[in-house]
Design brief:
single chain, 307 residues, two-stranded antiparallel ribbon, 10 helices
Length: 307
């Protein structure tokens, strides 16, 4: 395989990505200005060699748009696609604008770009879902919330709100649409937000306990919280309480700002939970970068907890 080439086979499609030869030069000025850069050339074919229509490949392009953006934590797009016949004559093209962020060298996402196996696993999970219009639309919405929550730009409070909306969407899907709870039960006081979040996290194999070595501010805040049932407050308690206090402050100076680093760490934990729950919902089995961490080595990944 040529250097700089990645090949993925998923759901009957073969997707080939080639890095542009002058990739490093093209990225040389991205730190100086917000610019959009074409980084790769992509080819999509049927695995069996059959021809296909623009309508048939459209869900694949949508999956790539949402999926790669979700993985990188910023909007990237398969821009300016064209369709050719077996004589390499252009028969179709789409030149409309696609949502895309300026290029960045450093990703804030959960996927380490050198981990091709995990990307192959992600695409194998995504393409079948996006073939179903209803499932694809719901997943895309969750990913949109996650992309906004993952990004390290803008106000931290905005990222928490977007992440909380994504978590709410996932909880509704996993608890109500699955038949575990009725709509009335979901909205009842017996199922507060922290209980719903803890339930979906536990069902996904995600431990809601807070690690003091990674999230010291949340650990301190949790230790001071009173919770029912004789248990200690966990990540589900903190994420939902901080979100609620930001939306419904009870005092002129909301106490959550009195704990140094608490709001930032709540954002980190919110995006971490949302990423894992979205990945679990599609059956992802690869590795990921823990987005609740603020330290660690470049490329340090770990298997998803349910694998």
């Amino acid at each position: 395989m040529p250097a700089g080439r990645s090949v993925y086979e998923a759901d009957g499609w073969k997707i080939t990505l080639d890095v542009r030869p002058d990739h490093n030069a093209a990225f040389s000025d991205v730190r100086k200005a917000n610019v959009h850069v074409m980084t790769h050339v992509m080819e999509i074919r049927r695995l069996n060699g059959n021809t296909f229509t623009a309508a048939e490949v459209s869900p694949v392009l949508s999956a790539l748009h949402a999926g790669l953006s979700f993985a990188l934590g910023r909007w990237v797009a398969p821009a300016l696609p064209v369709g050719q016949n077996d004589q390499e004559q252009t028969m179709w093209g789409e030149w409309g604008p696609m949502l895309c962020d300026p290029a960045r060298r450093i990703s804030s996402g959960w996927w380490y770009p050198e981990d091709q196996e995990s990307m192959a696993n992600l695409l194998a999970c995504l393409l079948p879902v996006f073939r179903d219009p209803d499932k694809g639309q719901a997943l895309r919405l969750q990913m949109q919330y996650a992309i906004t929550a993952i990004a390290d730009r803008g106000f931290v409070e905005q990222r928490i709100m977007s992440g909380a909306a994504g978590l709410e969407h996932v909880m509704w899907q996993e608890l109500v649409l699955s038949g575990l709870l009725t709509e009335d039960e979901f909205n009842s006081r017996s199922w507060p937000a922290h209980r719903k979040l803890r339930t979906v996290l536990t069902d996904a194999g995600v431990d809601p306990k807070v690690r003091a070595d990674r999230l010291p501010a949340i650990t301190a805040f949790a230790a001071a919280q009173q919770v029912s049932g004789g248990r200690s407050a966990d990540g589900a308690d903190v994420v939902t309480r901080v979100r609620n206090r930001l939306v419904h402050p009870k005092e002129a100076q909301e106490p959550v700002y009195g704990v140094k680093g608490l709001v930032t760490e709540t954002w980190l934990l919110t995006r971490h939970y949302l990423v894992l729950l979205v990945l679990h919902s599609i059956g992802f089995r690869g590795s990921y970068q823990d987005l609740s961490r603020t330290n660690g080595w470049v490329g340090e990944t770990e298997p998803v907890p349910w694998d």
